[in-house]
Amino acid sequence: MVNNERTEKRAERRAEKKAVRDEKKRAEGNSGYDDSTSYPHMTLWYRFILGFGKVFVLPFLYRKFHIETEKMPGKIKDPSLIAFSHGCNFDQFAVIKGVPPYKRYIASDALVRDKKMRLAFGLINNFIFRRKGEKGDNVVKSAVVTIQKGIHVAMAPEGGETLNGVTNLPRPRTGEMIKQMNCGLVTFQIIGNYFLKPPWGLTRSKEGKIYGKVKGIYSREEIQAMSPEEINELIYRDLYVNQYDWQREHMIPYDREGRAEFMEYVLYVCPKCGEIGHLHSSKDTFRCDCGYSVDVNVYGFMEGEDCVFDNVYDWDVWQRDRIVERMEKWKEEPDKPFYTDVNGTFKYLENNTPVTLAEGATLEMAPNYMRVYADGYEKVFPFDEIRSVSVAHRHDVVIIHENRYYQFSTAIPSSPQKYKTAAYLLRGRDRMSF
Ligand SMILES: [Zn+2]
């Protein structure tokens, strides 16, 4: 009896402590991945895995994903942030090969929402997880602690894979974060990844390569003498590449099944008729309801009789400019929706577990609000109250509102990116990433 009571009391105390911790996390608006107070645990295990992997697993993966890297031009002196350009899911393997020392990766928590994936990822690396749209204070804290223990941290400062083949600006807070981490910096550029498996596509090429190389190794003193803005500029300068320009020079075949498939995740304004959301992909062809049609060749370029743009980047720049113009018109009627997507599933995250709110839902965006509705369901997000609009899993629209993470996914391929771009413009950002 006495023992039972003790066990119960202990369980009660544990539950109380957990409730306090959860409440603190909720109040701070972080996702629950705050490991700033804990030692980057099980490092020995990961060192073992790394040693084992180096001999038995990695050579196989390097061959499988055609990864080729240049030898590091020198030694890394100080614990550093390893910043790499991001264009496909296999980039981490290029980073492991090109920058061999042990490091913790900052990764999107969308990777580990599934239990099996969580277990698998936990075995490979002691990740620092970041939730899209969050302020990321917990990530900074964890990164600082990791550097203090003398362990490198790796991340993609663009905040995601480039959708159009050109390196994005680093997240604005990157430089400030590196200052807080009081660390060195290594920049690692990856090219060819975008053609081997574009982030919007589902298939990968069996030919062609992913090329990685260290662009710069900077000491703690060098980096700490710079301002956050200067650090951001340095990262952007080192990592920047227009993969289409590079490919025009090299013309390496990257043949894939369905080379145009799911381009509608990125491209949504037709260059011929100007309509939004009338573009559809099938196999190697991308066409609009108006008749505009292009084929994607094995080099990743578009071709066709009336082809306006031969690559995704130029088309994307053009379409953003069209949206900038139209936004001025749209703002004149701030309660009229300018984007609509139908037949979606609407969820939110409760303690990192997705909970479905509505099926067969419609998402619309107007200058003043975003709204999701279905039979017997409605949720309106006044635009001023939305903390951020972003994209996850290439097809989901993510809305962060009152510290809550909402996600709209639809089975019909359409561009979630258009909501993110519109939100940027409505906030009046001038220097914007795609
Ligand atoms: Zn058209």
Distinctive features:
alpha/beta, binds zinc ion, single chain, 25% strand, 434 residues, 4 domains
Could you give a short description of this structure?
It is built from 13 helices and 18 strands. With 434 residues, the protein is of the alpha/beta class. It is globular, with a radius of gyration of 23 Å.
Question: Can you describe this structure?
Answer:
33% of the residues lie in helices and 25% in strands. It has a seven-stranded mixed beta sheet, sandwiched between helices. The chain has a seven-stranded antiparallel beta sheet with strand order 15-14-13-12-18-17-16, covered by helices on one side. It has a four-stranded antiparallel beta sheet with strand order 8-9-10-11, with no helix packed on it. The longest helix is centred in the N-terminal third of the chain and has 27 residues, at 2-28. The mean pLDDT is 90. A hairpin with a 2-residue loop joins strand 14 (369-374) and strand 15 (377-382). Helix 7 packs across helix 10. It folds into four domains: 1-26; 31-250, Glycerol-3-phosphate (1)-acyltransferase, CATH 3.40.1130; 263-319, no CATH class; 339-426, Roll (PH-domain like), CATH 2.30.29.30. It has 434 residues and is of the alpha/beta class. Bound molecules: zinc ion. Zinc ion (ZN) binds at residues 270, 272-273, 275, 278, 288, 290, 292. Zinc ion (ZN) is lined by residues 270, 272-273, 275, 278, 288, 290, 292.
